[in-house]
Structure formats: structure tokens, C-alpha cells
Amino acid sequence: MSQLGPEIVLGVGGGIAAYKSCELLRRLQDRGYQVTVVPTPSSLNFVGKATWEALSGRPVNVQVWENVHSVPHISLAEQSEYFVIAPATADLIARLAAGRADDLLTNLVLASNSPKMLVPAMHPSMWLDPATVSNVQTLRDRGFKIMEPEVGRLTGSDEGQGRFPETASIVKEFDELTGNISDLVGKRVLVTAGGTQENIDPVRFIGNRSSGKQGIAIALAAKKRGALVHLIAANVDEKDVRGIQTTHVVSTQEMHEALTEQFPQCDILIMSAAVADARPKLVSFEKIKKTLLGTIELTPNTDLIAEMSKSKTNQLMIGFAAETRDHLQEARRKMESKGLDLIYVNDVSGGAIFGKDKTMGTILTRNGADIAVKEVSKDALGNLLLDQAIRQLG
């Protein structure tokens, strides 16, 4: 699973309900899924290729014979972690049950071992026909997850079982298939990431080694779990935070201003940014000549966590500590002195952790329990911290 969320194929069958899959695509993207749309040729009678490309932001192929040099039926099958086919028509279900491979979508299904979910939509007589009933059972026996269509009005005046389910129901079923948890729905999560920089002159600054990877991973994990996320990012690559509401800052003062504005509205604050403890007392507006560089007089920066703690009402606050010695004792001291509910500490001796894709350390809680974290991805740590936050919130 990638940092930006699971790669999935959204297959679209040739039924009138195809237009409803435009909304499904958007909601899947909101849940963090990275979606490639693969329509059947007949579905283009309802929703055109250009629409899918505009909504997904990705190229859309229909036949195996398009972009042959990239062997799309193999390359896309290998990169996709899940399939959801919505709508799945009676014809498409029959072709899948027979093992046909007469367009790109059916080729992909045969070429991939990834979990697959079908969302049937058709006239009630077609859904209840013995051939369709048998085909559906065949696919279920092969491990396909198949939603039951809803009962209601269809095209024209007909009513019965065969209606395309509501988008929210489809997303819920698909989340169950993928294990995408939704336990932060309705919660506002505020995350800081990156490292603040304090100017010495127009070309030099005091900074640190933080890449922002951990904070971005936490923000993405919270979004996938249904939270409304706001990221305050200090000096990180903008392309890494696409899809997350983000305030970009440079200095500690700018981060303080953003926190002061956003903190009252949040339920959970996660301070993963590496904030500069001090800044130059005087900043030159012109580049200082090398021959004139001597001592730099520093003045302390505001302790952002301590400041937020002063105005805390019922927010849960999580902090980070990067230490080179006595890291557990130092983390416990910081947690108590700054009013944190949780703190994650790691040993950064020799530059460890900074800029890396994996991390290891310890989660400390207010009840005195220490949770050892063996080497895991920063995505996984983000979810571990959110799990603890949920427990703290009850």
C-alpha cells in the first residue's frame, strides 16, 4: 500500500447507472484511494472517456490495443491493489463468470489476483434470471465480493431489485474489503510537519534535518480514516501534500500564527514538526559577507506546544521528541511539562530517522504505559498514533 493510499481500478460497465460512478470516483478519492478508471467500450455511451480522465486526473484506456508498448493489461493489473466494478451489468457479470477477456477490464480481472468487488445494477428481471443468479454464485465462489442491488425505481416506471446502491453504501462496503477504517469521521485533526527555518540573512538560515515525511503520513492516515484534516507544513515539498488542506509556513512565528488560528476548532493536535528552539536576534536584510560572519546572537522562540496547552479545552495533544540520550526520561519530562496526552520519542543519534521512510521508537501515554515501536513505515506509525488517540478520546 503506497503512502498516498491503495491503488485501485474502478471498472465501469455499460449501464445507465454508469453516470452515478462519477460521484463514486470522487468519494473514493476523498477516502485516499488512488483511482484508475477502466470503462468497458459500451459504457462510453453513457459517460465519455474525457469525463473519466478529467475526474481521475489519469489516462483512461478501454482496449488492450491502446498504448500497447506499456502492456496495460499486465502493468495495471500488477500495480492495482483492489478492484471495484460499478455498475456491473448482466452482460459484464456473464463475461467475467465465463473467464472472457474481450476488453481491457476483463483482461485486467483475469490477470490480477487482487481482491475484487462488483456492484450489480440492472432490470429486476435480469437480476433474478437463473443465468445471472448462477453467474453471480460462480463469481462469489471464486472470491468476488458482490453487493446486493437495492430495491427501488429504475429506468422508466419499473421498480424492484436491481437499482444501483447509494454511493455511501458502496464506499462503506469497499472500505470493509480494503480495511480502510472510518473511526475519525466528524473529528478535526490538526497536524504540523516539517522543520521551521529562521533567517540569518536573505540566503542563510538556522534549520534542522526534518523532511516532514512523518507529519504528512499522519495527515494522510487521518484523512483516510474520515477526519477533517488541516496540515501546517514548514518547508516541505508541496506535491507531497496534494489533497490535504494545507497552510505552508517557513518560520516558527508563522507556524505559531497558523496554530493559534486553527487550534480552537480541532479535536486532535499532532505536533510532529521539528520547531527551531531559537532564532537570530537580528536579521540582516542583505547577505552578510563571509569575512564579517562571526557569532550569531540568538533569542528563544515561543514554545508552541506549551502555548497551545494554555488554551486547551478538550483537545487531545500528541507531541514528538527526538533525543540523542536518556530519550525515555526526556520524553516523559516533556509530556508532563507541556500538558501532552501522548508523545512519540525516538533516538536520533547519528542522524537516524530524519528523512528516512521508516522509524522506530516508543509511544508514551499519560497512564505510564510505554509502547515499543519496532521498525515500521512512517505510514504505520501514523495509524498507531491515531489508534492511541481514539482510545484516549474513548
TrEMBL record:
Pfam families in UniProt: DFP, Flavoprotein
GO biological process terms on file: coenzyme A biosynthetic process; pantothenate catabolic process
Listed InterPro entries: CoaB-like_sf (IPR035929), CoaBC (IPR005252), DNA/pantothenate-metab_flavo_C (IPR007085), Flavin_trans-like (IPR036551), Flavoprotein (IPR003382)
Keywords: Decarboxylase, Lyase
Keyword match Lyase: yes
GO molecular function ontology, one term from the record: phosphopantothenate--cysteine ligase activity
Residues annotated as domain Flavoprotein: 7-173
Record's GO cellular component terms: phosphopantothenoylcysteine decarboxylase complex
Repeat in keyword set: no
Ranges of residues in domain DNA/pantothenate metabolism flavoprotein C-terminal: 184-389
HAMAP family tied to this protein: CoaBC
Name of the protein: Unannotated protein
Organism: freshwater metagenome
